[in-house]
Amino acid sequence: MKIALFGGTGFVGGHLVDALVAARHDVSLLVRPGSEQKIPNTTIWRTTPGDLSNDAALDETLLGCDAVIYSVGLLREFPKRNITFENTQYTGVVRAAAAAKRANVRRFILISANGIKIPGTPYQETKLRAEEHINASGLDATIFRPSVIFGDPKGTMEFASQLYRDMVVSPVPALGFYSGVSPSSGQILMSPAYVGDVAAAICNALEQTPTVGKTLTLGGPEILSWPEMIRRIAAATQRRKWIMPMPIAPMKLAASLLDWLPFFPVTRDQLIMLAENNVADSATLEKLANRQLKTFDTAGLSYLNNQTEH
What we know:
Elements: E1 2-6, H1 11-22, E2 26-31, E3 46-49, H2 55-62, E4 67-70, H3 85-102, E5 107-111, H4 122-135, E6 140-146, E7 149-150, H5 159-168, E8 174-178, E9 189-190, E10 193-194, H6 195-205, E11 215-218, E12 224-225, H7 226-236, E13 243-247, H8 248-258, H9 268-275, H10 283-289
Helix pairs in contact: 1-6, 2-3, 3-4, 5-7, 6-10, 8-9
């Protein structure tokens, strides 16, 4: 198949390119000016310069394609650069869906996120509105809602690498966030999913008609607490780390005052979502990936040993 991929220079998108090419699909990428160096190092059928606001670039990316995958998302907004959740996670989806209809490309896969809702944070609300738009579009759509995703970032931003950099490498104790009145009663839980497994599942679903019209949640094989994930990252990188229990409420207050600063590590909205947990069953991911899922352990996190310390 010929696949138009939006977001192919990002973390998940780069691994999707690898999976699609390995499965002998031809990949057509939209590449934002300035991101040329992020094009995956593999055989790409076609690259088109432009961005999601450019109809001509969208049309060229979709020309001759059989399906489209939308893998564009943000962890943080930069409004002064016009990089917002609204533009990227909602308006971009609307424009990509319209372009797919113009090109008569009916198969549409949207990569969304687990735990989204309205009312919620701007991240959650734009993701859910995008899902609603795609479900009402008449396209042959499948929506994926992965839990937190880990794996080799290949020069992009990724969950475990960020924790390694911000908490494990740091000489100060790591923060063991909890949301209740005590660490035991308010554990923050996640189901980390390996990016290669997620990419394989999406790639395999492309031609599976039973997935059309479905919203599928993807979780990894284990449910882990926040401190346990930090301990595993430390073990994978041969470090010893003291973890200091920290209620998340004071961090929300600090973030509400300081998250406008680019160097502040988290935003208030990210902490709100963190406190809500991010747990998903692994059965759907294992079935679609058609393989044993990689775990968030020393072997699965071995790529962290190649990370540059700053």
